[in-house]
Amino acid sequence: MSTSVTTTCRDINELLPASQLACKLLFQECYKAGITNIFITETYRSQETTEILI
Asked: N or C terminus of the chain with fewer C-beta within 10 Å?
């Protein structure tokens, strides 16, 4: 898992299994609704990054 303050992790496989499943189900529902342009912006945010953003 990426923990760098400057590196953004977008890999769904880095999520916990329940979160991976939730993303996959969301994608399925979006595709059914005709929404095909989906982009994950961040799957993990380190404590350091969170503190910088506050």
From this structure: C
What is the predicted pLDDT for the residue at 5? Answer: 53
Residue 29: φ, ψ to 5°: -65, -40
Closest CA to 22 of 34, 40, 7, 9: 40
With 0.70 as the threshold, say if the pTM is over it: no
Contact of 42 with 8, CB cutoff 8 Å: yes
Q: Which residues of 30-53 are buried (b: 16+ CB within 10 A; e: fewer)?
A: eeeeeeeeeeeeebeeeeebeeee
Give the pLDDT band of residue 12 (cuts 50, 70, 90).
confident
